[in-house]
User: Fold this.
Amino acid sequence: MKRVSLTQYLVEQQREHGRIPGQLRLLIEVVARACKHIAIAVNKGALGDVLGSAGSQNVQGEIQKKLDVISNEVLIEANEWGGHLAAMASEEMDSIHLVPNRYPQGEYLLLFDPLDGSSNIDVNVSIGTIFSVLRKIGHTRGVSEADFLQPGRQQAAAGYCVYGPQSMLVLTLGDGVAAFTLDRETGSWVLTQAGLQLPDETAEFSINMSNLRHWAPPVRRYIDECLEGRAGPRGKDFNMRWVGSMVADVHRILSRGGVFLYPWDARQPDQPGKLRLMYEANPMAFIVEQAGGLATNGRERILDIVPARLHERVSVVLGSRHEVLRVNALHAEGG
Ligand code: AHM
Ligand code: MG
Assistant:
């Protein structure tokens, strides 16, 4: 079988469809290379002294793991000098990171969750990196946080890497979804699936059931209906999976269908949810929609939300169409 590398895929996309500007192509290649370095660090585990806590806290008050900090540094260093970026923002940094003056400034803004699924790092369960790419609007040299506050539908690209039994890169440039597997011997990302589509119908949901008593009525009702199985209103038995790494849960859903929920809950009533709009929800929503699925906060499309803040949180319901529509309908009825 002819092997198509990520580089070749991007060159062909650019040549055939004229879709990928040179800076965007470079950006994707640089992010993919950084993810390869993160994958290597993840694989070393205790042998590379990368497990455990870094002894610091991030802007959301969460304890940072060593791999959170290492992955953030790898992404920043890789992306600073190429001339493709104006600035970066990360779940692990309080404010935006400008490209230093000594480098040329590019047209794009890069946002990332450098190491998603932090609670799974030390237990050898799949974790990942999530990224989102926006265009900088306006041509002045200065960049501010306000430049980042664009709705997710304006993303130029989005992707994630999952560091699991295989390391995989899943990417959208706004025209479908492609998946690449890291060939550890050659160090190259090889195209292993193009035109990923998730099934409309599913019988598998993904939610942290331990929070059941804190959910709002529409979410409770949706899960109750699933749990009632064949005898209930849905007329079929559902299975459940919850890895606790969004990348791994979303990757499973892209691979075989399903619905993922991280809804608002009463533990933090003032927060719209746990997951972050700009680093987690938007890129995953873009990928899922490009694969034929839906992504909402129960009421509105995630990609239409206009962010007010960089570290804004959001409720997330995404995956196979029919399930997301059912959750939305229950919200519209008020549960
Ligand atoms: P992180 O970016 O700090 O790892 O947090 C996000 C993660 C998601 O990957 C996952 O879906 C969720 O948090 C799991 O949360 P919980 O432990 O509450 O089930
Ligand atoms: Mg995360």
Remarks:
- The pocket of AHM (ligand 1) is lined by residues 62, 91, 113, 116-119, 208, 244-246, 262, 274 (CB under 6 Å).
- The mean pLDDT is 95.
